[in-house]
Give the backbone structure.
Amino acid sequence: MKGTESIENIYRLDGKVPVGKAIPFGLQHILAMFVANIAPIIIVAGASGLESAQTAQLIQSAMIIAGIGTLIQLFPIWKVGSGLPIVMGISFTFVSVFCYIGPAYGYPAIIGAVLVGGLIEGCLGLFAKYWTKIITPIVAASVVTAIGFSLLSVGASSFGGGSGSENFGSAANWILGSITLLCCILFNIFAKSYWKQLSVLFGLVVGYIIAIFMGMVDFTVLKGTAIVSVPSLMPFKPEFNADAIFSVVLIFLVSATETIGDTSALAASGLNREASEKEQSGSIACDGFISALSAMFGCMPITSFSQNVGLVAMTKVINRFTIATGAVIMILAGVFPALGALLTTLPDAVLGGCTIMMFGTIVISGLQMMGKCGYSQRNITIAALSLSVGIGFTQVPEIFQIFPKIVQNVFAENCVAVVFLVAVILNLVLPKNMEANV
């Protein structure tokens, strides 16, 4: 009976869960975000002209800092951290602006901008109660919905084999992604009790095994990998370029909005309540200060990961200790590079098969939040216009061509940023009562 009570704690924020039972759920969170965590590094490092050894070092640092950031989110230090089951990782939000800054000013300019931007966001988080009032429930619901929509293309790209891959959309990727997705669905249908919540992990394992037999797993990355290694402090000397800093600080403001949306979505879908002011503040502060720490190790910003919010929404596993086991695994993957290198062999199609439904769950969470806000004329106007402009305009990025390059970098392909901006403006200017007088 005692064992049953303890395993049921996976559905509670606090409570003891046996380590042996907690590890699979924690590992599921890490596998769900691992490829997406290192992909931004690979993209930006390539655009900035870094060598493969430098890129590998950044990946190692990212795993360790993301693990530390996750632990701080779970178990706050002072006012930094939310106390919620938020998993941290390298943000895709910054990729486009970094791909502009890197070639133009060099990778050290990126690090300098991240250091400054992270400290600014961290301080904004500490004083969030003075400005988050403009983020009303309908604004947060619109942003959460936009986050879900923005991730759908990420899941689809992974399903097809990874954006830019030579065999993208091949029959092999379709087969592998479909089998993985089917395994997730069948396991969720036929598994009993809490085992249902391991459907993503089951799909990943089965998909990985099938990928090995299909010859789609490349183990050459394991050759010459050190057994134990510690990342070095300041591998790049930060350079402080005004243009780079201004661009990145703007994106940090967008990232803070995404964090508000992630925190709201997690509280709504996992805890069936609204996120508190303290949780929102701690979550944003953690994003900022951990990003600044990440820059000290030459890495990119570490922020809340929407992918894992989707996993929480789907599984309802919210236990902090359980998620913490995943954070420890992430740190070990950084300290033991061979473990991290092994995880990088996970094919994109397998990841896509597991995440495509997860990302859809975030969209549904946003819609559920809208339902709780009520369908008043004002709320409908804010949600409808912000989503139509945000998602519609960013699908046709050429529409921003008359604006300066910096505006294009921030908004042209970032639907979350546009949705947030439009929703906040509408929330400020629209009259409080828009109902038709009958």
Observations:
- The CA atoms of residues 49 and 103 lie 8 Å apart.
